[in-house]
Amino acid sequence: MAQSYRNARQGFLTDMLVDTTPIGSIVPNLKSTDNSFDHSYVKSGDINYGNLSEKTGNAYVNGDDPAYTHEGYLYCDGSTYEISDYPMLFSVIGNKYGGRASQGIDITNPGSGYTSNPVVTVDAPSGANSTQATAYAEIDNTGKLVKIDTIIAGSGYDPNNPPSVTITGGGGSGATAVVRIDPDTGGLSGITTANVLDWWGITNLGTFAVPDTKTRKIVGNNAVFGNNSPNVGNSSLGVGITGGQWYFAKESQDEYFSLGRITTAGYDQVVETTGCTIIGSQDVTVSMRETKLTGVFQHSHAVFHTIPGDNQYIAEASGDRYLADFKEGSGRVQRWYPTSGQVFTHKHALLRRPNDDNTVATYDVWDAFGGASGNGSIKNPLDAPADQKYMASGAAGAGSWDFQTFIPNPTFYRTQGNSVIGNRDITTGGTPIIDYTNEWEFTNPGNYTVDFSTVTGSPESFQFIAIGGGGSGANGDTGGNSGGDTSIKVGDGSIIHLVGKGGGGGGAASGQSGGNGGSKGGTQKLGSKSAGKFDGLDGTDGGNGAASNGYPKVDYPSNPGTGGIGGLLGRAAVDMGPVYGAGTNGVNREVTGQSGTVDTELTSDGTFNLQGINNPTFVAFWVHGGKGGGVSKGSVTGHPGTRVYGELKASARATFTQNSWSVKIGYAGGTGGNSPGGGGSGAGSGSGKRGGQGHIPPPPSSGGPGASGGGGGGCTALYRGSQLVIGAGGGGGAGADGYDGGPGQNGIGPVGLQQVTSAIGTGSGGVGGNYGCIGGGGGGGGGGAAVNGFTTPGGTGGGAPGGPGGAPGGGGGHQGGGGGMTGTSSIRTDYFQSASQSSSGRTNGKVRMKVDYNNDYWTSGGGGGGGAGSWNGTTSWSSLGNPTSAQITVGDGGSSPGGGVAKGGVGYAKLGLGIITGYIGGTTTTSVGDIYEEGTADNVDWDVDIVSFGDGTGNQGNFKKPSGTPTIVITGGGGSGATATVSTSGAGTVNNVTLGSGGSNYTEQPYAYVVNGSAGGTVVNATVDSNAGTVTDITLVPNSSQPYENMLLFGGVNAKTSKTRYVIVKPTDCSKVNYIGIKAARGNGVNGGDRPEETLKVYYQLPSSSTWVLIDTIINPNANRNDPIIGNVPPVSEAWDGTSGNTKWYTYNVALPQAAKENNVKIKFEQPRANANSANDNADNTDHYGIAEVIYWKEKVTELVFTPTAGAISKPAVDSLTYTVQGETGPGITYSSGLNASDARLTMKSTTKVEPIASLDPDFDIPLLTPYRLCKYLIKAF
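The chain above was modelled as a monomer; its predicted structure follows.
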């Protein structure tokens, strides 16, 4: 491309030659100070380039002379270029000198009007084991987007279908962006020197800058940017060595300088005392030696005589090893001696600690003979030595103590529904005696003002009651409505501003599932004081239906009444009056207008359409057979086909729509003429047969019609699935008149309807008889249906016979043909009732179906409405600052959704001023916190408290309950790359864990942390195959995962001077803890909390000390922080902390120092805040943090663990024990030598010289840039 710089000066040789310099090389273009002018002269005509004289040239006559355009180079002036224009140069120098490469999200329209950084949302990927990408946008002072930085590149995206990017908030509009997906990782792909050529050809690659070397010369003596780079004078540059160096690196400077020689004297004057420690280790193996038995072990004899013999065969036979033979005689029993004269010895098995069961011991059963020894009998002597076990007494108590390395389960402190902060005064059970002289009560919804200026006297007590409106129950599948909030704001609200939240509307039923109960109303404290808060009760869930749409009315003609029960306020009434703020019951909505009648027919083969039919109450079929054929000769007719009627029984109606109902039509027989009438086709083999052949007058006689008989009609069949359930016989064909005028015969009717319960089949009619002489042909028989073995008189199966042919009459008898018989009809009475048979009036057959159905139903039960939250308490009037008025809002009950559902109970408010004269009963106690033993302020005047979750909107500490899917972080174990995911239930608990990648190089069990999102207390354990180096399984500890119930809120206000907030966790065993964590939310102004300016810090206090020691900052809302478990945590933003209605919770952690690893250690979380003044907002309910859980993560330990082996004890585990005794003492040292070393006195000697090693530690690189007149540098770009 043509360059913007041009110079008409005379150039040096490098300006005139075509070069092959590599991309990225910098070359100088030096200009002489003499004989060089700014004019249009160029060097021309001098072949040797030796003469610097100026000659008039024509370089600019027809365009730029290539000698001065420097094709392929850019001027090193610090300019910024598009990466897409010079990708090769970017691949060499990248963004070393400036510019900004794309990070994977590119702005296509910067938008306008932005006053703050908007939120960038990248659509989530759809695949399994994927991660959603996140990004952060910045604007300039004109209100436009200038860049988008990628925070998390994500994974699992389809590069052929990249996700959409949504830019919201910030006060502006119009900004758009697109993403670029790496096909290998499935994540956002930024542009780097390594991949730029892979993406070259697309837009939005970004920018880069070239070096700025204006008026400077590059010198040095090492590689810079390739061949032909400059070299400073007086430095060596070997043949083939590339370029020079434009700065003197600080790492290299000490190679060029020396501090000289250092001489040390006066060694013997150096005398010092130094402490000594014992180090090293020694393995000590302990085993028991054999010891003689102190006496005869317990034994017995089989004594036959007082004089024993010498032989042992009796012992061999009897099994008594010590029994000898005997002989007659008298005397005493002899003393017992060991056989063979050997002494018995024994020894004991060793354990690292005593067994809990003192009845357990190894024992000897096989070796009761002289010389026996050892710990006992081996139970499995054929096994490998490492697997052998001694026989032992005891069952579950038998076993050995072995050192095992494992990761203990973490300790989780999750706030429960009844959790409280300790060390706060609570009065319970008492009723204050108040003499009220002024009261204001509000029982109707609306806004009210109370004027305190008219109050006379000096009240001591201020009473307040605020009850929100109750939620209405759901009308079946129409949800109920939430009740309104009731609030009391006294004065400016800084002290008393309380809200009783309305109860939630009952949830709508959906299909077979009943609706969820409406949520209980919570409470909200916006001022500094409160008392007597109570969350209402949840409405109960509606009952599930009996069918997919609820309760069919055909089965439930009356309302099933399974609606949920409305939640009460929790107190029966106010002053024994009506119940306020109560939720109302849900109902089952009646859905009518779903009944109807289907009356349809099929005139050709097919299947009835049953769509939309449910719960049939009446089903009937009319099945018509085909009519018998007529004749051309005579006035007789074929018999009509049979019409069979049947109604489905109730048992068959129950499965009516579960079967297909199909039809095969029987068609009419043909008319007989010159040729017999053909038989009508029918279902299966139930076709009618042709008529008989009749006389045809030959020409030139009268030429009348042929006298052939009519064909029989076909059988029509109705099928239930593949079963034939109704068959209607086809009509018999007519017999034709004879040509002597003898009359033919009409088709003959059928036999009676066959009502059967076994299988029905179809049969064909008989063929009509042929004529005699000049007689008429007989009619064909109709097709029919009957059970197997049934024979229609004169026919086979259900088919009827054909009529006989005409026979000669007397005197040459010219008679007419006989009529064919109508086919037999049958019906299955195990399916049908009210069956009947009659003649059809149709030519061809048909089937009519009529269905009455009732699809009306009751919905599943709608959820009951939630009860409202309330406040009911008192405070001193003097503490309110003598307010002049109060603003009251009474919330209405949730409106009825119809269907007879009552409106939710209306809200209620009451204020009273009076004198407290005492209490009836009551006890004042100090609260004992189940998790937090102490917090700032108290139960009335508070700025930390345990509160209910909110809806995640606004900035008043209204954080929403954690709901995101947790993440598993796998770390340690010597390897890397293992991944796992979790799935959660609707209750927000983890119900399954799936191992993704097993990773590699694992030598021991890694740590597996379940962090972020929902599911409190979740514990998983990783299993490692150390031989393969992979994680083989991730298991969920049963019942460890629990839902969150409420949270600790850093918020509210207090009247004290110090605005610093803190809470102290009860003493906990921290001896095996490596990290302290919290499941926490940070306010950002829209996610339910106000954005905090202050950090949240963690301290510890040892049980033997009163000093709090800072551990670290666990949350920094203003800067990036590297968390030891979850990694980088950015400053507060909507992208990280959540948008309106979507509070995001993360597990923040700090490492516990070694000094804090003791039992009964207290942990304090503190938010340091300045005293309130006009420069901050610390007097208000601001700067919110929420904590749902405190976690004590445990480090890997090696401890003695009892390994039970019922009835046996491991031989190698108890024969001997080896201990590693170490010289050191302290944490991690199991067995210490206990040795101490005295101090040592050292005198230096000159024989051991002290030779100081001098070295340089340069602070910065030294630029080797010097001004150089008339010199410009070019970088090879393409």
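Residues 87-93 form the longest helix (7 residues).
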